[in-house]
Amino acid sequence: MGQIVITGASSAIGWAIAEELSTIGKPMLLQGTRKHELPLNELSANAEFVMADFSSPAALEHFISRLTDVDILVNAAACTITELLPQTRDESIDKMIAVNIAALVKICKAIIPPMCAKRSGVIVNITSVAASKVYRGQSVYAGTKAFSEAFSKGIAAEYGRKGVRCNCVAPGCINSGTLKLLAHIAKDKINQSNAMAKMGEPRDVAAAVAFLCREENAFINGTVLHVDGGQWIGL
Predict the structure, then answer these.
(1) Which of 163, 178, 199, 225 is 20 to 30 A removed from 186 (C-alpha atoms)?
(2) What's the structural domain count of the chain?
(3) Whole-prediction pTM
(4) In a domain, 235, yes or no
């Protein structure tokens, strides 16, 4: 039985995805940077957590070495640093590129050949509404997420005929730790940024990921599913 692999599982969104996909019953390999905060006992006995900071090439390579027979891959690991470009330190730029781009590419590179060999595999990459609706202070972060969406469409085009599907879920303002980075923006202003006048919850993103992973939705490939309450349409 193949693995479900979820990166960024120690984030609120990543953990919600892990909880949602644990009902499938497959062995799970989770990656994150904070293990002690997670109720791992609530998942199946086949769930394993690996501590790894993807800004470290050695940690990334070690994690990749743990990937064996992957059925479902969800890339939810992300580095979000909100600063205007002239004030953004070089190490912050390097970290966002390492986590949001390099890790994504190298993990997909490792698991796609085995998926093609068995002619079956699902990849869901968590991007952001910022990929298409840019906000001040997020030029580098938004650029990495736009790359992720273009990269995902490339995978869908190249490997769809071999049974590998790749889609994106693009969250908007979700009630998670990432919103702490937007503390300078009033909550009511965040709520008014979408058509539903409220923030989403991590479980909303998890439900969208589960939808894309289901076999009955196997004809969905190369798309970006926005989970943003209508934020992307612009108000």
Answers:
(1) 225
(2) 1
(3) 0.92
(4) no
